[in-house]
Amino acid sequence: MGKGKEQDTRFARFGVVSFTAVTKVNDFIGYLQEGKLMGTRCKRCGKLFFPPRADCFECLSSDMEWFEVKGRGKLLSFAKLSYAPVGFEKVLPYTLGLLDFGDFKVFGWVSKDIPEEELEVGMEMVPRVVRLEGDRLLYEFVKAS
Ligand SMILES: [Zn+2]
Fold this sequence. Notes:
Layout: H1 27-33, E1 38-42, E2 48-49, E3 64-68, E4 73-81, E5 94-100, E6 105-110, E7 124-132, E8 136-143
Parallel strand pairs: 6-8
Antiparallel strand pairs: 1-2, 1-3, 4-5, 4-7, 5-6, 7-8
The structure holds zinc ion.
């Protein structure tokens, strides 16, 4: 982390609190605005990261490039939450899921369009970028068609 107080505020628009401290990967939000969900790939060792990281913890390289999270992931697990970070109280309850894409995993919200009884471990899902009120951006998982 550099010194100084420069903050790229684009991350403040993203709905997941844990992303807000990340400043080097702000292009993530720019891509979301284009409807793309992106992770980072280490150019030295090839490791894939989601959420995107600016530094590789495998080989310590900072030489990273973006890749788009595409295709289907398999639902590894999901959990219905009744508590939410500040700002999310209105959307309770919601379901969080973990999709396995093989080389990496993506954690995120499961679309409310999917009835809870239809969710099952192993089902194929795809991420979709959505806009929330207040011009906030988020991605959620929907059933692969
Ligand atoms: Zn690496």
